[in-house]
Amino acid sequence: MVQIKRLNSTDSSFNQALQQLLAFENAMDESIDTTVAQILSEIKKRGDEALIEFTNRFDHVNVTSMTELELTQDNLQQSLSSLSIAQRQALEHAAERIKTYHEKQVAASWHYQESDNTILGQKVTPLDRVGLYVPGGKASYPSSVLMNAIPAKVAGVQELIMVVPTPNGEKSDLVLAAAAISQVDRVFTVGGAQAVAALAYGTKTIQQVDKIVGPGNAYVAAAKRRVFGIVGIDMVAGPSEILVICDGKTNPDWIAMDLFSQAEHDEMAQSILLSPDAGFLNQVAQSIDKQIDDMPRKNVIRVSLENRGALIQVQDLDEACAIANRISPEHLELSVDNPDKCLEKIRHAGAIFMGRHTCEALGDYCAGPNHVLPTSRTARFSSPLGVYDFQKRSSLIQVSEQGATKLGKIASILANGEGLSAHARSAEYRFKVE
Amino acid sequence: MVQIKRLNSTDSSFNQALQQLLAFENAMDESIDTTVAQILSEIKKRGDEALIEFTNRFDHVNVTSMTELELTQDNLQQSLSSLSIAQRQALEHAAERIKTYHEKQVAASWHYQESDNTILGQKVTPLDRVGLYVPGGKASYPSSVLMNAIPAKVAGVQELIMVVPTPNGEKSDLVLAAAAISQVDRVFTVGGAQAVAALAYGTKTIQQVDKIVGPGNAYVAAAKRRVFGIVGIDMVAGPSEILVICDGKTNPDWIAMDLFSQAEHDEMAQSILLSPDAGFLNQVAQSIDKQIDDMPRKNVIRVSLENRGALIQVQDLDEACAIANRISPEHLELSVDNPDKCLEKIRHAGAIFMGRHTCEALGDYCAGPNHVLPTSRTARFSSPLGVYDFQKRSSLIQVSEQGATKLGKIASILANGEGLSAHARSAEYRFKVE
């Protein structure tokens, strides 16, 4: 039997229990951080030479030049050709849907003109060059390549450089095929902090990028934190989470499997179900026990559900929505008759899956929206990865001669109030001579 | 005479000289970081009690309760009433223009429906609660209150909590008046790392916020870096910079004063002028010498111009634009006949000031666009502070019964390819039974 926590929102200890359930400290390991600092410094100083050394050491390969660490477009096409037709079509179909959805996110430049001909606006431009980190080994996910690369390309990023370590020389055809499909420009088989450093500082072979995105292990996360400011980075993600709100009328096997699909990611993943129907919660608990032994990743699922999962009885769907806002989950599934009514009350969630037929797995792969989502309550202030992460804005200000007098008078008073005389004088010089 | 650097883009050493000129390492002071870690930990553990202790110690005050550390809306209105009519009107006029401009940045939710009735979109919501850090003492800028508070309010943030230290109990009426005008909800006279900690963790009196914005000293910056992830933060800014491109036909006194207006901020501020006209560069150099002794902040201006400023002769305006992209300046002034032609070539800049009448000072105070801008080449990947920093997005996915079969087949293939069986099964459960 899976010992999953059972809570009831009417218990006096509920608030505290919920807080404990959600507690997760993304503590930084100081020894990892020290190692990473050394790696960054070596790459900054010695570039390609250090990159080759670290790659040979950490990935157990034996290369002597950067040429051996770059894959050609031909290599990527070979990986694509090696796939089964079904896999290739699935990847291509997913890519197409992701592209269509993200095209709606493209922001355009805008401006407006005032009556005195002063023009104000914003110019929107893509980033020049982006680095995409892709983990090697077991956590090698082609869907992650699509989700990170396609928004960058839709934004208009000219050069997308992917890094993916190949420990012991092992490559993933699925990952490289995904790179081909999403039109990645260059691929280097390097990883870890050394790959992040190469992208952030640039080497003779790898040009400095403007932003680094993509998931990685603790070394990669520590390296990204350290190079932030020199380049942009995406969020450093915590463990994945799902919160399901169900009115009790969905097949309990479906809901149990939805909880499994989050729990199978890793032992720290979190799956929580809220329902006003106590009988339904029992049915889901039974279904968990019934189905778990069928799952190839049952050991991971069990640890995740027992340590971090919960089935929570709530008073009604309104209260469920209020608790959802407190949890601010990465994934929120509204498995209810009228999901629109719940949606109105939801303020914080990474992605919202509406209706009984919308399981999270569809969004993870191919519905269109991004699967890179804010974790650990950061949906309170951050958004799914999107085209907006690969575009930036410049303010536009073109003040007319008449406007310079009008605005200059205000600026002069405020600048003098702040003791900044050169600001005031610079504005006053532009006053129109009457 | 001000010894400002003179460079020429045709010199063989130019690239290296430019790189040296721009070099700026925002090195973290380890002793500051250690102190900050202790302060954060005390506030996290002991809340208001620790906040009162640190405030008494660092701000040389003597309070015994949080009530003494909160200003009422009446207090803010009193500060507003104490201003001269000219100052009040200038602030109100600036606030109005900033509001009008930022209203154009409000993003709206969107969705689209596919032929099988699947609905995809994004729901856009404001952050619930935002903390605004305002420095006390000499760097106490009312314009900064407007620029940070107004976009948050335009976004729809329900509660805006401002913290501003009052060393020795000294308050700035201009700053508090700006808070009144921008409808700040609560104001606490606390500062430093302890104020950041109170906002990030919450105390009995100060509720936890979702994001902290606003400038501060090295302690505030270190604290913001450390609480990032628990709450959102804005960029940690480097020294302010201006790059002026001039065709040589603007009054050299105007351009010299524009360089001063940046240099007067602090000794690390950077002012650079690019012009194809060698004679004009000489005229500006002469004007600098002629005007500097008139400036109240002449000592700061001199150090800034001599250590970090430069007058650079370029071959033509095209080359000037190419160099501007390399510099990716915070402020870019296009003091030329046809600024639109230059604009087309500019990819990276925080704010672009177009035409001879548009000095930076107008944008700093009242043109409308934000004066919180990306510094130190971060305009390559980041944007001015805006309404978009106070809104976040949730993906919306509502898959129809028919769509669940179509998308489920793709998801199932891809999930199995990644070894995630529960993902596959969860999708397969939703297949339509024919």
Give your account of this protein's structure.
2 copies of one chain form a homodimer. With 434 residues, the first copy, chain A, is of the alpha/beta class. Chain A folds into 3 domains: 5-24 and 238-367, Rossmann fold (3-Layer(aba) Sandwich); 30-116 and 125-233, Nitrogenase molybdenum iron protein domain (Rossmann fold); 399-428, no CATH class. The first copy, chain A, is built from 17 helices and 15 strands. The first copy, chain A, has helices at 14-22, 30-46, 48-59, 73-82, 85-103, 142-155, 173-181, 192-201, 218-227, 252-263, 278-292, 298-308, 317-327, 339-345, 360-365, 401-417, 421-428; strands at residues 5-8, 70-71, 110-113, 119-126, 129-133, 159-163, 186-188, 211-213, 232-233, 241-246, 270-275, 310-313, 331-335, 351-354, 391-398. The first copy, chain A, has a 6-stranded parallel β-sheet with strand order 1-12-11-10-13-14, sandwiched between helices. In chain A, strand 6, helix 7 and strand 7 (186-188) form a beta-alpha-beta unit. In chain A, helix 16 runs antiparallel to helix 17 (421-428). The longest helix of chain A is centred in the N-terminal third of the chain and has 19 residues, at 85-103. The mean pLDDT of chain A is 95.
